[in-house]
Each structure stands twice: as C-alpha cells, then as structure tokens.
Amino acid sequence: MTPSTLIIPIENQVRELDAKLMLACMAAERGFPVIIGSRAYIHYIAGSLPRGIYLAKSMRGLSATMFRLLRLLGHDIAAWEEEALVHPPAETYFTLRLSPKTVDKVSHVFAWGNENCALMKQYPHTPPRLPIHVTGNPRGDMLRPELRAYFASAVAEIGHRYAPFLLINTNYSDVNPFIPDIGLFAKGSDGTVVRGQAGLGMSEAFAVGLREHKQMLFARFQQMIPHLARRFPHMNVVVRPHPSEKFSSYERFAEEFPNVHVDAGGNIIPWLLAARVMIHNGCTTGVEAYALGRQSIAYLPGLNPYYDFDFQGLPNRLSDQCHDLDELESTLSCVLEAGEVVRRAPDQEQEKLFSHFIAAQSGSFACERILNVLVAEGYLNKQPPAPMLLRRLSGRGLTAFRARQKQVKHQRDGANRQNYHDHRFPTLAVSDIAARVARLGETLGRFQRIAVEPYSKHVFSVVSR
Fold first, then answer.
1. Predicted local distance difference test score (pLDDT) of residue 190
2. Which CB contacts under 8 angstroms, 24+ apart, belong to 293-300?
C-alpha cells in the first residue's frame, strides 16, 4: 500500500521551522513520506506532488482558492489555527480567521487546546461531522523541558553577543508593515484608503479601533526603547520586531544608542531563555515565556480592555503588567537587582488559563498525537482517493496557472512580492536542515535514520533510510 505524503508548508521560517521539522521527523519515523518547505513554493509545485495530507496553518478565506485546488488534485487537508493563542472576540475571529469556503474542505482540525476546540465548535459553518482533535500544537512541543538542550548552543551564542540584555518583542505589523499591503489599511491604486490584508474579514469598527490602539502602542513603544536605553545603560536592549514588520522603524534607535540592537534572527525560544526579562504587549511570546518559566512584562499604556484583554488577554494575563514608564522602570529595577531570576510563581488562575489554551505540555508530544490521528485514519496505508481524470487535469492546469500568476506578482509591489517572501523564508541549504535534524535527534535520542533531501527550490523531503 502507498502511504499518503505529509505536506508541511511553512510561512514564517523563524517561527515555524523547528516545530514543523520535528513533526516531519516523527512522521518519517512512522513511515510517512514528508515534503516540507516554503508555503509559497509548495503551492507552485502542488500539481506535481504525490497525493497526501496538506497541513494548513489556518482556514482564512484567503486560502479558499488553494484549498479548492488541493482538493481537485486529490489531497486531503488537515488544519490548525496558527494564531489560536491570541485571537479577537468570537464574532470578529469567525469573519477574520475562518471561512465556509475553507472549513468545508478540511478533513481534520488539530486544536491547540480546549479553548481553541470550543471556539471552532461555535463557528456556525463548522460541519457537524468535522473531527476536531485536542492534540496541542508542534510549537507548544518546543516549549517543553525535553527540548531545552536543542536550543542550548543558540542560548549560549545569544548570551555571548548581548548578555546581559532586556528583550523587547513588538507585534505592530498592523500599523508598521514590512510592505504596505499587509497592514490593517493601505492605499489603493487611486490613492484612497482601502482594507489591507490584515484587516480583511474585520468589521470597519473593529479595524478602525484596532488601528488606533496599535498606533498608540507603536508610538509608546518607540518612546520606551530610548527611555530604557538611557535608564539602564549597563544593559543591552534588544528589539525583536515581528517578522512582518518594517525593521527600519527600530533600527534608528540602534544608530543613536550603542546599547540598542535590532535582531530578529532565529527562533524566539533561545532569546527568551537568554534574556533577563522580556517586554511585550499582547504578543504570543508572553505565552511562550510563561511556558518556559521566564520573566515577562506586558506593557499596557493607554489600557483598552477590549483590545488588551478581550483580544490579547492570554499573553497579557500570563505576564506581570505595567501601565506607564515609571511603573515599568521600577519593575525592571526590581527584576535586575534580584540577579538571575525566572518569573514569579504563577497563581492558580494563570495555570488554569494556560492549561485551557495549550494541551500536551506533558506526556505524548503534540506531534505524536497528531500523527496518531493520521495513522488511525489509515493515511499510513493509503492515499486519499484519486479524483476523476478530468478533475485532476483541471486541478493541475489551474494550479500551474495560479503559480504563474503568483510568480509574476512576486516581482511587483504588493503583499506577495519576492523580497517579502525572502524576508520571512530566507534561503536554506539541505545541510542547514540536516544540522537541525541531527540536533533534534541528539536532544530526543532518536531520528538516527532520518535524512533530508532537496525536492525543489525552498522545498525539501524528509525520509527514513
């Protein structure tokens, strides 16, 4: 019997690669053929991939065309919600992150935790028989103590460059986008203000309110960076922008202050482990810091409960909270005077909240739980049924046409242009991937038979020999 190929697309390399590579290695151990790499470049070659299961990172309406083509080609689609830990209230989440045109093409959903599962079940267009499995997420696996050694060399290297340092994580791509089209709002071809990619699916009131709140926070963070550089001259201040942000907005501070650095390289986890404290507002890194037992501060100037708690409540509630620069400076002074510290002991409400959102923090890894579902569904022993010949040919033709359109668009201004792809998915050599696999294997005591091979540009196969 021919097993299904597991197709694992990656959009933001620094955020997703390590976790999805561990899933790929565990899948190859089980006997699954695995294809992993750039999401855009996997889509280019989708028409020639062997039939299998495509693991989607979201179910937004923006993916409706690709989901339709994948089904025409004979692939099944399993999905999780990459942004499930920080999401807006349900009425906005449903229009922003879900679509009837995508959800009805999904065969399985893998939920981060019970909160994510309950939210999916509330969506009016979720098919009654769609299986939603509370498995946890591979990114959650990377936060577990078993994976600390995987990041040890990166922690040491970061410490050598910057320690002691304060880490500031920003997430202002809504109002400080790498390219204009991906923000909440952008200028149309006629010069009028139109909805940007980030705002598609939001109500006008929610989008306008969020833009105003994010603009205020962006300005206050830009005031905070030089303030902390002056007040703590013995500390380095490392700013880590969101992968979709314009870095130049922060690099000007590095030119003015010798102790300010802008660096978004690599996975966030070793940065959190190496930093003395991390400062954010509504950023998933607040959740990751909590899971790692590290000190984090949610800076909440101009507090707006609707956006700061109803929307971004999980990371803000799992962090210490400061509401102005004086309070932030005082809190940082206490943290730094205490020496090498981790976060204060969590209270019961924080532990309950964290457990409600994130499953698989002990016992079997989320990767293993996901694979258990796929094996139980028979994917290890068979491919999804082949579509009728005309459907398959139609799917190949339409996929090739879409690829040509996207490749042309990549060379133009807009949300899909090539430099934005290369910003989020820098070129990787096979040796880079193989080195990560070897380090994962050393950490977990497995993967000795796993090999990485080139498949196409920005795409790799992971196999068991």
1. 77
2. 293/342, 293/343, 294/342, 294/343, 295/320, 295/335, 295/341, 295/342, 295/343, 295/344, 296/272, 296/320, 296/343, 297/321, 297/322, 297/328, 297/331, 297/332, 298/322, 299/220, 299/221, 299/224, 299/328
Chain centroid to CA 11: 8
Q: Is the pLDDT of residue 415 over 60?
A: no
Q: Is 413's pLDDT higher than 90? A: no
How far from 94 is each of 81, 88, 120, 353, CA to CA, in Å?
Answer: 12, 9, 9, 22
What is d(CA 408, CA 427) in angstroms, rounded to the nearest whole number? 20
Is 35:8 a contact under the CB 8 Å cutoff? yes
Instruction: Give the pLDDT score at 45.
Output: 96
Residues written for the chain: 465
Residue 451's H or E segment, with its range, is: strand 450-456
242 neighbors 250 (Cβ within 8 angstroms): no
Residue 175 is predicted with a pLDDT of: 96
Segment 122-143 mean pLDDT: 97
- What is the rounded CA–CA span in Å between residue 343 and residue 345? 6
Q: Residue written as tokens 């668009």?
A: 409
d(CA 395, CA 402): 10
In DSSP notation, 251-262 reads: HHHHHH-TTEEE
Cα dihedral value 83, 89, 95, 99, nearest 10: 50
Q: Is residue 416 predicted with pLDDT exceeding 90?
A: no
Read off the pTM: 0.94
State CA 54 to chain mean position distance. Answer: 17
Position 37 confidence tier, pLDDT thresholds 50, 70, 90:
very high
